[in-house]
Amino acid sequence: MDQKLKIGITCYPSLGGSGVVATELGKLLAEQGHQVHFIANSIPFRLGTFQKNIFYHEVEVNDYYVFRYPPYDLSLATKMAQVAKAQQLDLLHVHYAVPHAVCAFLAKQMVGDDLKVVTTLHGTDITVLAQDESLKDLIRLAINESDAVTAVSRDLIRETVDLLDIQRPIDLTYNFIDKRIYYPRDAASLRRDFAAPNEKILMHISNFRPVKRTQDVVEVFRQVQEQVPARLLFVGEGPDLPKIQWKINEMGLSDRVHFLGKQDDIAQVISMADVLMLPSEKESFGLVALEAMACGVPTIGSQAGGIPELVLHGKTGFLSPIGDTQSMAENAIRLLTDDRLAAEFREACLHRAHHDFCNDAIRHEYEEIYYRVLGREVPSLKPVCG
Ligand code: GMT
Description:
Elements lengths: L5 E5 L5 H16 L3 E6 L13 E5 L13 H16 L3 E5 L1 H15 L4 E6 L2 H4 L5 H13 L2 E4 L2 H11 L6 E2 L15 H5 L7 E7 L7 H14 L2 E7 L4 H10 L6 E3 L6 H5 L4 E4 L8 H8 L4 E4 L4 H4 L6 E4 L4 H13 L1 H18 L2 H15 L13
Parallel strand pairs: 1-2, 1-4, 2-3, 4-5, 5-6, 6-7, 8-9, 8-11, 9-10, 11-12, 12-13
The structure holds ligand GMT.
The site of ligand GMT has 20 residues, from helix 1 and helix 4.
């Protein structure tokens, strides 16, 4: 019997870390010989060029005249069922409970029980949406009806169980980095474009939503640059951007802060930084801190959510209570003014990212879950990282 699987993947094709993880996982699975079918409303932005075993099925929304809001979710569920039948998919792996796990549940009703559903919870689908009473029952249904559920940190599992009173097991499957892409790049010449040789670079990368607490990034930087010659680089775009720009102008810091906008080659950009700033209010994992770690860059951040499971306080970064900008600034100054400490942290970052969060091992963890729900033996041994 053919051991390779036919897997449908649905994710938000253009939204942050969950889309990145889903797409990179699909590419890794395709490299292993599995057939991967992305089902989404546009091509996932990390998909890149043609790769064997990867297929893309676009969801088209029917804009019938009685619809005030064209029903994307129903079109997605229908497309999932159509692709599952036509391609004889073994399973759907959906990233995000709302609406993807709900759509997968509907698709399964149309296709039959042989189609298995694996749901991965990433963050605000639980920490924000599951607090909404009008969505709670729907999210609980989608979680309980999935054949397997994974979450990207212990903290997210705890929060899911507590908020939704979930009794079923949830597998912990951390996010990962592709070691072929995330390693310290030579950024010397790029660095010269932004900072003088004696200046340190602090960096923040996000979608600038309120949960990222970008105002804390600015406040920490204000305190740091009073003690250490430094620059602050913002990478990304999002709703809080105008507020940050206003605050920076008001503080008279505009000549020391640079906005790089959205960037594709994050490994190259992060390699310029001395520290990454992640002072989030909520963060189930913090993929960007892992990407930084894999490039040898420590994180100064908050103790929110799953961040402490990833960033080891005093080893691969420093963590403070949410909103404690003074402690964050002190930690950043400590790291930026002690070259020996910075070198130790850099080594610890590289070791941790490449040993504990490598693509091969985590991809295998997902495969184990797939074979388990299908009631089949896992055909390969778990690879060792490093
Ligand atoms: O849920 C969100 O806020 C967006 C989501 C995303 O698509 O980037 O981020 C979540 O998933 C990422 C990938 O697993 C995690 O690294 C982020 O920590 C998580 N965001 C939050 O928990 C705020």
